[in-house]
């Protein structure tokens, strides 16, 4: 099962190599975005806003207010929104993990590896957002980053969902340090 998924991913990535920035290929429904110069944050927010049933998130650094807010709004619309974050998101100050938790979104902390360096969203079990782009203001405004949106690829989305589940099983619930000071 994994081999056909990997072959499809290699094909998708091969097609992406021929894409112009911000363009799409009809057969594969791919979209690229690059910083500096393009608004990748808005592209990600648009994908979240178009989601119909679920958003699974894996994030290393997560400080982008527009993306965090879009996830909160998705939860308010009734979507199943869940997140696995790197342990660096577990801080005493108010963070994305705190915001998500306060909006009823289950947050897990992936603290087993040295760094949980994923930057992935799986939407509706069909679409995948991935790339080097951390979900941060810095990724949008200061870094050279890339985003790849792969739409209507259920096998690929399934592989990413299975990885999300494996990481969830190895993770622990978010611990809001602020609760301990009260």
Provide a brief overview of the structure.
The protein has 182 residues and is of the alpha+beta class. It contains 7 helices and 8 strands. An 8-stranded mixed sheet has the order 1-7-6-5-2-3-4-8, sandwiched between helices.
Descriptive notes:
It is a single chain. With 182 residues, the chain is an alpha+beta fold. It has seven helices and eight strands. The protein has helices spanning 2-17, 40-50, 65-76, 96-102, 137-141, 154-169, 177-180; strands spanning 30-35, 54-59, 80-86, 106-110, 119-123, 127-131, 145-150, 172-173. An eight-stranded mixed beta sheet has the order 1-7-6-5-2-3-4-8, sandwiched between helices. Helix 2 packs parallel to helix 3 (65-76).
Strand order of the largest sheet: 1-7-6-5-2-3-4-8
Q: Determine the fraction of residues in helical runs and give it as a percent range.
A: 25-40%
Structural class: alpha+beta
Shape: globular
Largest sheet: 8 strands, mixed
Q: Rounded to an integer, what's the Rg over CA atoms?
A: 16 Å
> From N to C, what is the helix and strand string?
HEHEHEHEEEHEHEH
End-to-end C-alpha gap: 50 Å
**Tally of extended strands?**
8
Number of helices: 7
Oligomer state equals: single chain
Low-confidence stretches: 15-26
User: Could you report the average pLDDT, rounded to the nearest whole number?
Assistant: 86
Question: What is the beta-strand fraction?
Answer: 15-25%
């Amino acid at each position: 099962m994994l081999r056909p998924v990997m072959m499809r991913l290699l094909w998708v990535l091969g097609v992406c190599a021929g894409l112009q920035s911000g363009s799409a290929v009809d057969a594969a429904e791919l979209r690229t975005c690059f910083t500096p110069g393009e608004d990748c944050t808005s592209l990600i927010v648009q994908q979240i806003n178009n989601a119909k049933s679920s958003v699974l998130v894996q994030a290393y650094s997560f400080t982008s207010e527009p993306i965090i807010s879009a996830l909160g709004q998705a939860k308010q619309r009734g979507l199943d929104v869940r997140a696995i974050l790197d342990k660096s998101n577990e801080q005493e100050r108010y963070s994305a993990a705190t915001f998500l938790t306060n909006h009823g979104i289950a947050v897990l902390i992936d603290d087993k590896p040295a760094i949980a360096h994923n930057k992935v969203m799986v939407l509706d079990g069909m679409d995948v957002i991935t790339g080097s782009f951390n979900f941060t203001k810095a990724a949008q405004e200061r870094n050279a980053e890339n985003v790849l949106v792969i739409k209507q690829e259920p096998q690929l989305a399934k592989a990413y969902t299975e990885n999300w589940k494996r990481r969830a099983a190895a993770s622990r619930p978010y611990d809001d340090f602020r609760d301990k000071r009260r």
